[in-house]
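Re: that backbone. Tokens:
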């Protein structure tokens, strides 16, 4: 239970006004529960679509409201990572300066552009999916679930970019092997369940391939340009992973 509460406290805007222990097994459990925060996000977005349909809204307004619900529930945490990562990378400075930009609470021109691009992409992809008439609650839950599973694998398989900060703190606290095993089980079970429910093997295979390739490419890119993983880079990975998973869903329809 502590792991779930920590995941809600750190990765959502849901108020958990309680001081929770942060021992090794608690932090490991928090990251183990993170994919199920994705399930919560997916269910909230599903509810937004259903309410929009009940109110007679069109697919454009429904898509806008659904994106807003997802942002509100996560407190814009991962989008903040997108903004900071965009500002840092496109500064074309050395790694030390990029780390300073990541830590800067201000947002620059590239950060603003990054936010706009990602929000528009998510809106467009959701709109295409809703307008296709093949919208499914299982897919809407699966995308944020698998995106967070992939982020956990990226996070635990990458060294911290610096010795200080939240990423370094949490990595020091984690039991990596059990967490990797648990996350792989979650991905496998989720893919099998999705294949059974949707009666197709194509989409799970495509999504599994997308996760594997994206994980390897993003990990290589962050190590090369930032020296490892940070909290902002992890948040940006979740947002990017959701976008490519939606592209995989639409291409498999």
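Recovered sequence:
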């Amino acid at each position: 239970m502590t792991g779930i509460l920590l995941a809600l406290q750190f990765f959502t805007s849901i108020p958990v006004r309680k001081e929770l222990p942060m021992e090794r097994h608690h932090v490991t459990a928090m990251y183990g529960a993170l994919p199920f925060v994705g399930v919560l996000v997916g269910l909230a977005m599903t509810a937004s679509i259903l309410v929009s349909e009940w109110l007679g809204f069109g697919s454009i307004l429904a898509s806008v409201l659904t994106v807003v619900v997802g942002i509100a529930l996560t407190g814009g945490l991962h989008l903040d990572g997108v903004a900071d990562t965009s500002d840092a990378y496109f500064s074309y400075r050395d790694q030390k300066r990029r780390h300073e930009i990541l830590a800067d609470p201000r947002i620059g021109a590239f950060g603003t552009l990054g936010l706009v691009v990602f929000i528009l992409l998510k809106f467009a992809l959701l709109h295409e999916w809703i307008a296709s008439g093949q919208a499914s609650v299982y897919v809407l839950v699966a995308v944020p679930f698998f995106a967070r599973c992939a982020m956990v694998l990226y996070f635990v398989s990458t060294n911290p970019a610096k010795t200080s900060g939240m990423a370094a703190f949490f990595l020091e606290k984690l039991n990596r092997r059990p967490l990797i095993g648990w996350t792989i089980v979650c991905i496998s079970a989720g893919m099998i369940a999705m294949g059974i429910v949707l009666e197709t093997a194509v989409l799970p295979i495509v999504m599994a391939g997308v996760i594997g390739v994206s994980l390897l490419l993003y990990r290589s890119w962050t190590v090369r340009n930032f020296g490892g993983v940070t909290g902002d880079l992890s948040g940006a990975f979740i947002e990017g992973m959701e976008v490519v998973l939606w592209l995989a869903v639409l291409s498999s329809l």
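The first helix runs from residue 2 to 11. The chain has a mean pLDDT of 89.
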